[in-house]
Design a protein that fits this description.
Elements (H helix, E strand, L loop, with lengths): L2 H9 L6 E8 L5 E5 L5 E3 L2 E4 L5 E6 L8 E7 L7 H6 L6 E8 L6 E15 L2 E8 L35 E5 L2 E2 L4 E4 L14 E4 L8 E9 L5 E5 L12 E5 L6 H6 L16 H4 L16
Parallel strand pairs: 2-4
Antiparallel strand pairs: 1-2, 1-7, 3-4, 5-6, 6-9, 7-8, 8-9, 10-16, 11-12, 12-15, 13-14, 13-16, 14-15
């Protein structure tokens, strides 16, 4: 008998022992389990904590393509969701599965929601997380965009470039920093200034391990230090000595793809597409009207 059928049979008895449980898997692989039952539960490789104080509300689901929405409420605690992790963005887009379960027989259960975490608010020692259903992805634009710049992200499945190859990434310990946005080294002479503009700084150790930021500037300062500045600060302090990985930047131009990465065959833009000046050009009486290209 399926676990779902077991639950249905239990519901038909009229005397039920029903609870709800939520499993969260972050992008870094960390797993969390919560339940509104008064005792812990265990199934699907999750340990669902009863002492988390998590509840759910405003569950809206449909059989069509409209977006399913739900909301989870809970208490910030050392053994559950930490405020520091929320501030760091570790729960952004985490995968969520919710079950209705017979707490007296956890094998009798069914999935009632599957999706991801959207916006998270926090106040007075508690958090409120928006849960977005699988149909949320239907709101995202799909298809190719006809434009001169490349539409791929460096290293993704359409770009196909391996940033781990020599010269395109560098692992180094932080030598000087403002702890969140600006980082400096005495020697990065193997890379010309500007090499990492548009690239990524990935934190590999310390309190901010697993977080990353996009590079805004890469230059040699007045004191001779190589300086890398991010567009936005990383939301957890980074200390001197923490390991980071710098990945080369790409400005999406065909010349950069060809000359910097030798990856012109995988360029995902249209470098020869006419611009707006060509679209608005017209023949003039005093010009050459031979049937050739307008200039």
């Amino acid at each position: 008998m399926s676990t779902q059928q077991e639950l249905y049979d239990h519901l038909e008895t009229g005397l039920t022992t029903i609870a709800r449980a939520w499993g969260i898997v972050r992008s870094d692989g960390a797993r969390f389990g919560f339940t509104d039952h008064d005792c812990d539960l265990s199934f699907e490789d999750f340990q669902f904590k009863a002492s988390s104080g998590v509840t759910a509300s405003l569950l809206e689901q449909s059989s069509g393509l409209s977006v399913d929405n739900s909301e989870a409420l809970g208490v910030l605690s050392d053994f559950g969701v930490k405020e520091a992790d929320i501030l760091a963005g570790r729960f952004d887009d985490a995968q969520v599965t919710a079950w209705m379960v017979n707490w007296a027989n956890p094998d009798a259960r069914t999935v009632i929601f599957r999706g991801s975490i959207g916006e998270i608010g926090r106040s007075n020692g508690a958090f409120r997380a928006e849960l977005r259903g699988l149909s949320e992805a239907m709101n995202r634009p799909l298809g190719r965009v006809f434009q001169k710049p490349c539409t791929a992200v460096l290293g993704d499945t359409t770009c196909r470039f391996d940033t781990a190859t020599g010269g395109y990434s560098h692992l180094a310990a932080i030598e000087e920093t403002d702890q969140k946005r600006v980082f400096s080294w005495n020697n990065l002479s193997d890379f010309e200034p500007g090499w990492f503009i548009g690239g990524v700084l990935q934190v590999k150790s310390g309190a901010a391990n697993g977080l990353s930021g996009n590079v805004k500037r890469d230059y040699v300062g007045a004191n001779g230090l190589r300086v890398v500045e991010l567009w936005e600060p990383i939301r957890v302090p980074i200390s001197v000595g923490d390991q980071v990985r710098l990945v080369a930047g790409c400005d999406k131009r065909f010349q950069t793809c060809r000359l910097k990465f030798n990856n012109a065959l995988n360029f995902q833009g249209f470098p020869d597409i006419p611009g707006e000046d060509w679209m608005t050009s017209f023949p003039s009486q005093g010009g050459e009207n031979s049937g050739g290209s307008l200039r």
